[in-house]
Amino acid sequence: MIGPTIRIKGDISGEENLAIEGKVEGSVTLPGHELSVGQSGEVRADVHANVVRIDGEVTGDIAGVEKVIISKNGRVKGNIVAPRVTLEDGAKFKGSIDMDPAEGSSKQSKPAIKAAPSAVEPAGGAAKNAG
């Protein structure tokens, strides 16, 4: 836990859950673990964790592998990427939310696959007419 009177500038990474009640500036990376920003927590950093719960303030982009939860007291300025996002009634949020980045890229590739065979067909038809 980072207590309310602690201030950290730099990158934080680890292999365990973390609760922030103080001030953090830099980046926070906790792959496979949970990050909790308490009501007195102020984070000015890009955040990456399995589960991110925000009761305080975060300025920066948030990536949640499983989910991101912004409580009624939470304040976020930044973009969120996670498969599940919860904004409780009263939460303050400014940014964008991407809840399924993999689906968007697969939709873009499907039309390209369909376009390739149709592009080949006219060429084959032209070859038949020429011969």
Structure description:
The structure is a single chain. The protein has 131 residues and is an alpha/beta fold. It folds into two domains: 7-99, no CATH class; 100-131. It has one helix and eleven strands. Strands 1, 2, 3, 4, 5, 6, 7, 8, 9, 10 and 11 form an eleven-stranded parallel beta sheet that branches. The longest helix is centred in the last third of the chain and has 30 residues, at 101-130.
Apparent shape: globular
Q: How many strand segments? A: 11
**What is the total domain count?**
2
Query: What's the pLDDT, averaged over the residues?
Result: 83
Q: From the helix content, strand content and strand pairing, which structural class follows?
A: alpha/beta
Order of helices and strands: EEEEEEEEEEEH
| Number of helices in the DSSP assignment | 1
Beta-strand content estimate: over 45%
Helix content: 10-25%
How large, in whole angstroms, is the Cα Rg? 22 Å
Spans of 5+ residues with little confidence (pLDDT < 50)?
104-131
Cα distance spanning the termini: 77 Å
* Major sheet size, sense and barrel closure: 11 strands, parallel
